[in-house]
């Protein structure tokens, strides 16, 4: 499972470029990534670059929102488990419902951890943002 930031980079530049960028980050070749992104976007129109920047902003907001709402998801999970425990129902129904809650919570937990601790993707997005800002500031001149 990739973070939403990693999915953005893959959507913008392709899965192979994403893997290449990750390898370059591991080798601390950030300037190479910047130059590649810059050259990739250099001939784009200002409108296209603005759309990419807006898409980037929305993706970053989604990443932050995933982290913010995880507390409420956890609270809902705990309340759901307690309610099922105290509910007078057949044991099979309780176990099935708790199993479903556990699977859903584990999915959300995986999504949270993936998006919370995606240092590599954050660094790639920052390089991408810098290239976009640089190109947009040149367009304004």
Low-pLDDT regions: none
Helix count, per DSSP? 6
Radius of gyration: 21 Å
Strand count = 0
| Helix share, percent | over 70%
Shape: elongated
Distance between the termini: 41 Å
Strand content: under 5%
Main sheet summary = none
Query: How confident is the prediction overall: mean pLDDT?
Result: 92
Order of helices and strands: HHHHHH
Structural class: mainly alpha
Structural notes for this entry:
With 141 residues, this protein is mainly α. The protein contains six helices and no strands. The radius of gyration is 21 Å and the shape is elongated. 14% of the residues are buried. The model has no long low-confidence stretch (mean pLDDT 92).
Give short descriptive properties of this protein.
141 residues; mainly alpha; 6 helices; 87% helix
List the helices and strands and how they pair.
Elements: H1 4-13, H2 15-26, H3 30-41, H4 46-86, H5 91-116, H6 119-139
Helix pairs in contact: 1-2, 3-6, 4-5, 4-6
Q: What's a quick, concise take on this entry?
A:
The protein has helices spanning 4-13, 15-26, 30-41, 46-86, 91-116, 119-139. The chain has 141 residues and is mostly helical.
């Amino acid at each position: 499972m990739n973070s939403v930031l990693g999915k953005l980079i893959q959507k913008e530049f392709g899965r192979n470029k994403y893997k290449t960028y990750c390898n370059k980050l591991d080798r601390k070749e950030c300037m190479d990534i910047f130059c590649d992104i810059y050259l990739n976007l250099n001939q784009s129109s200002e409108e296209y670059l603005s759309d990419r920047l807006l898409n980037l902003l929305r993706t970053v907001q989604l990443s932050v929102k995933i982290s913010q709402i995880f507390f409420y998801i956890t609270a809902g999970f705990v309340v759901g488990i307690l309610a099922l425990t105290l509910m007078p129902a057949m044991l099979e129904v309780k176990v099935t419902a708790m199993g479903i809650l556990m699977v859903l919570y584990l999915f959300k937990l995986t999504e949270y951890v993936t998006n919370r601790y995606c240092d590599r993707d954050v660094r790639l997005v920052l390089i991408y943002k810098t290239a976009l800002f640089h190109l947009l500031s040149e367009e304004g001149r």
